[in-house]
Amino acid sequence: MGFFDSEIVQQEAKQLFEDYQSLIQLGGDYGKFDREGKKLFIAQMESIMDRYRVFMKRFELSEDFMAQMTMEQLKTQLGQFGITPDQMFSQMNTTLERMKAELEQQS
Question: Which Pfam families match (predicted)?
């Protein structure tokens, strides 16, 4: 069975994508959130990034051809912006840390 043939992988990918999309839509109103709402948004974004990082590691470790191709495509796409997957996660983490610091300054 291939990596993408797994019902668990398909369901997890679908759920991760839906959760991310919902959070991004919600993030459009981030400036209107109260302090607790902002904390919750940041925590949920951190959770999604952790889930995404684990999901990507599964691609990386899989011996499945399609999983390897998917990783290569991601690396190529990110490479067009001059970054690697690790740098992408690092930048996301830096952004979330900055958001937390700004929130602390407001208290």
Answer: DUF1825
